[in-house]
Amino acid sequence: MIISCVLALLGPLATAAAQPPATMGVSEIRTGMKGVGRTVWQGGKIETFQFEVLGLQKNFAPGRSLILVRASGGPLANTGILAGMSGSPCYIDGKLIGALSIGFAFEKEPIGGITPIGEMLDGLRDLTEAPSTRTPLILPRMEPPKVLKSALLGHMVPVSEILGTTEVPEGGQMLPIPVFGASTAPELQSLWAGLPLKPMGAVAAGTGTGEASPLEPGGMVAVNLVQGDLEMSASGTITYLSGKKVLCFGHQLFNLGAVDLPLWSASVAVCVPNYNSSFKLSQSVAPVGALRLDRSMGIAALLGAEPRMVPMRVGLNLGGRRNLNFKFELMDHPVVTPNLAAMVLAQTISTYVRGAGFQSLSLQGNIKLAGHPAIEIENMVADLNANRMAMYLGGILQVLTMNPWERPVVEGISLTVKAEERLDLTAISGVRTLKARVKRGQTLPVYVVLQNIQGVKETTTMNLFVPPSARPGKATLLVGDGFSLINADPDERAIDVSGLGDLVRMLNGGMRNNHAYALLVQTQPGAGLRGARIEGVPPTITAMLGADGDFNANRLQRQIISRGVLPLESEVRGLISMELEVE
Predict the structure, then answer these.
(1) How far is CA 65 from CA 237, 328, 431, 485, in A?
(2) How far is CA 530 from CA 49, 301, 495, 548, 556, in A?
(3) Total-model pTM
(4) Spatial CB neighbours of 414, under 8 Å, sequence gap ≥ 6
């Protein structure tokens, strides 16, 4: 309804903009030429600044050029080129030459770079009326899969390893896109590493009531990464408008290609001078369309379109004294959604849970996927580190969204966090058995000594059944928490995963850090070929097979032959091993 109202008011503008502006190619531009740019300094009013062409930097990236300029006017003498000016259209003799997109850190003069409009029009011409077909994100398979093992250990793969780096002129930088509403806490900076975004905290976060900038070249817009009870928006400037098609920024948001994100009109509260990189303090005002293309030379949006978002709900139980409920909507993309979900969870916890003293956090919930069983979420953190819990959630989402078989449809993320005013931590301080030899087909009692944070000890029994198929000879008993056991990798057999359904089953059957486990492990001779075991291969043949990259050979492979589980209402830490003899 809001979108319809906004577009109705802007209907005459969109009609007028149906005729695109005249443009000037790079070949026509000469050093010393002077021109005018358009941008917003405050509120929603579009104003002008001046610039002089300093030169042309050709092929700073393959087939890409950059127009170097010195700008003046407005606050630029005091601020230099501002983050948030990205996309500001620049004209010479009334012809559009491109979008201001590059700045220089710690610059003493407002010198920047312009992305030629020809490159933007060519690179963003694939904008279509309908969202792109949901296609799989193909990533290299690793054995064991790096993303899967990171998640089972409660970690995330850094996004910088996934997206790589962006080419810019030496000494220059893409004007960092201010993201308002994002936490600037040091412990959360790892979640932003590798992204061309600059978290600005909550100073101007949220939907604003200021004057909306007109939807025309030079107007301010915001792309919402998260909306609802937390607003995270990346702001920049409109470069080009033709009918319902809008080109902005002059550089990438993430360089993800086809995307689907809310586009909002925006307002500028103030321009903030900064020795490193000055920026516009802005806020979203009203939804106007959807961002559909994200490429290195800019972003393209469609007015009136409605994006699909991932719903996320977080319930926060503050020790039974207070219950809070929050609703969010996240950007739907395989690479970015896990990071945004982790950020939202971490910021929700850190906003309402104190930052010092003894306290424990427990997490339960699920992730619903279309066509698959829900993934159950369970984690315990015996400290005030919200980042650990957030990484656990983000890692699981990475496994799902970055699988090489199918693009999952995340129908919703539902979480409940409980904060207790005590340190729920249990250590595994001792393990013993009544005898060092055990017979096949019998049950082995394992006595585990648990110790809480106050030093109180208790002994519990875990029974392991030794299967008749066990091999006579040595076996290793491992007792520990889930994360420690996964890190020890007690089962070296090749992981045979053939689809998203297999990943869902593995995640739901994974070991947790609030459980104690007893594993009986034996070594098995053999080799692996493309995930399938070949039993009884002689060591010499195994060694030759191992020389071929298609083979996963192990002279001795460890295998779990029996497993016991003890759920606890605390975080468990510790790992103890002992040798046994199977008869």
Answers:
(1) 20, 40, 67, 52
(2) 62, 44, 10, 11, 17
(3) 0.80
(4) 312, 313, 365, 366, 368
Tally of CB atoms within 10 A around 523: 17
| DSSP per residue, 2-31 | HHHHHHHHTHHHHHHTTSPPPB--GGG--T
pLDDT tens for the 583 residues of the chain, in order: 333 333 333 443 343 344 688 999 999 999 999 999 999 999 999 999 999 999 999 888 888 899 999 999 999 999 999 989 999 999 999 999 999 998 888 888 999 999 999 999 998 888 877 776 555 454 544 444 677 777 877 888 877 676 655 554 554 455 555 555 555 455 556 665 655 555 555 444 445 557 888 999 999 999 999 999 998 888 999 999 999 999 999 998 888 888 899 999 999 999 989 888 888 888 889 999 999 999 989 999 999 999 999 999 999 998 878 899 999 999 998 888 998 999 899 889 888 887 666 778 888 999 999 999 999 998 878 776 788 889 899 999 998 988 878 888 999 999 999 988 778 888 999 999 998 899 999 999 999 999 988 889 999 999 999 999 898 999 999 999 888 888 877 655 555 677 888 889 888 888 888 899 999 998 866 544 434 444 444 444 444 444 444 444 444 567 888 999 999 888 898 899 999 999 8
β 425-432/443-452 pair status: antiparallel
Residues 6+ apart with CB under 8 A from 301: 221, 245, 246, 248, 263, 289, 290, 291, 292
Scan for tokens 């931590």, then name that residue: 425
Q: Is 154 within 8 Å of 392 (Cβ atoms)? A: yes
